[in-house]
Known about the structure:
325 residues; alpha/beta; Rossmann fold; two-stranded antiparallel sheet
Amino acid sequence: xxxxxxxxxxxxxxxxxxxxxxxxxxxxxxxxxxxxxxxxxxxxxxxxxxxxxxxxxxxxxxxxxxxxxxxxxxxxxxxxxxxxxxxxxxxxxxxxxxxxxxxxxxxxxxxxxxxxxxxxxxxxxxxxxxxxxxxxxxxxxxxxxxxxxxxxxxxxxxxxxxxxxxxxxxxxxxxxxxxxxxxxxxxxxxxxxxxxxxxxxxxxxxxxxxxxxxxxxxxxxxxxxxxxxxxxxxxxxxxxxxxxxxxxxxxxxxxxxxxxxxxxxxxxxxxxxxxxxxxxxxxxxxxxxxxxxxxxxxxxxxxxxxxxxxxxxxxxxxxxxxxxx
Length: 325
């Protein structure tokens, strides 16, 4: 991790982005446990550098697809805390008017397709959007976030193969947190890395430390530029760790204590904060100020969400695609 070639405001924006995701997730976790929110959640504590680093490499015209674990991607791609919080509370002021909830969080106006909760379901969608960009001669890139479990779905082979043979402007990002729900990745995948599967499709495959936000940013930036210039897809494997359960009621007892302790020591926010202080980019007071500002942002979003209107029954008849003869 080297900060020498980056401006302090950019570095602090990365830190703020990761803190925003972590604090959002922790606050939402307790709102669900208190019974104040409907539905269910799958959270991304510990994986913040993946979302922030990749999305920092994208332009506003680029799009991302997400998974059943979408909150971090949404906030990193520009969906506001207010819009995301209202959506989780199922209010009309949410980014999907209260109709999507956690599993379908998104806003295409901000460059995020509403999340696809089916494992691997976003891969053909991102590939199809990249095909549309190429056919329209638009210099836009689609980024497909997926977990390690998705690489054993048929949609992975079909989508990545199509992206490769047509040299589409798409980047496939695997957030390898070592577990597909509770199943260790080495139980179900024989290759040493996921990235080496790229050789079957004739595209580059890169494995990096997904908890190093600057490494993620620089690697994603190169892959995005390659796609934008017409050279085709890249398969990025970001090694990270989920320091929470698979879903809201999962105590994650399948994660060994020593492994979890190492992950907590290596989690991206504490690690980046320590580095910024050591490099003289910012002091502890600046970090505390960002923490406080994010806390206030989240509490303001909660206050706005709980007082916002709920959808009416007739709202179910709006925002529909109707095929006419």
